[in-house]
Design brief:
This protein has seven helices and six strands. It is α+β, with helices and mostly antiparallel strands and 177 residues long. The relative contact order is 0.09.
Length: 177
């Protein structure tokens, strides 16, 4: 079998052509098609490229191909960097006297508790104020956010007593005041 045909078949497969379309296009048998696509050295490359989605790394925001639902980071280095960051913030909070850091706080639960109202301006939050660009969710100004009443940077803790619901823009304007 010609190497250029093999490569063309692999490219078509990665680009989403079905096996039957490829067989018809190149006049191959089922066995020949499978042998070309599933050759040992190409199996992981072809499967990874076909099934992956492009997302941004949760740490460095670099775009990468996500091949597993659990992957949030582009590399092991970014995953470890984020893990160290979380450990450091937990340690600093404990040093400031925080007995418990509540990791169970969610935006949805906070919205229910605060009756969907921004505590800074008194208006309701808008859960629909968002859109997606290139697989990244971009929140608008009136989308809800968590505001730490006593900012973490000034010794506040991440607990139910110190968190209130606010618009994203109100929270940004308030900053660390």
């Amino acid at each position: 079998m010609n190497n250029s045909i093999n490569e063309a078949v692999r490219i078509d497969y990665v680009n989403g052509f079905s096996l039957s379309q490829i067989r018809d296009k190149y006049g191959l048998t089922v066995k020949q098609t499978h042998r070309i696509i599933w050759k040992r050295k190409y199996k992981t490359i072809v499967q990874g490229q076909r099934e992956s989605k492009k997302i941004r790394c949760a740490m460095c925001a670099k775009e990468f191909a996500k091949t597993n639902e659990q992957h949030l980071y582009c590399s092991e280095k970014c995953r470890l960097k984020n893990e160290r960051k979380q450990t450091r913030s937990t340690r600093k909070a404990r040093e400031r006297g925080a007995e418990v850091i509540d990791k169970g706080i969610t935006l949805e639960a906070l919205a229910i508790r605060d009756e969907q109202t921004c505590y800074l301006c008194g208006q309701g939050v808008d859960w629909q104020d968002k859109h997606t660009e290139n697989g990244v969710i971009i929140c608008g100004n009136y989308y809800p956010s968590m505001d730490h009443v006593m900012p973490l940077a000034k010794g506040g803790v991440h607990s139910w007593d110190n968190i209130k619901l606010s618009h994203r823009i109100c929270n940004s304007v308030k900053s660390d005041k």
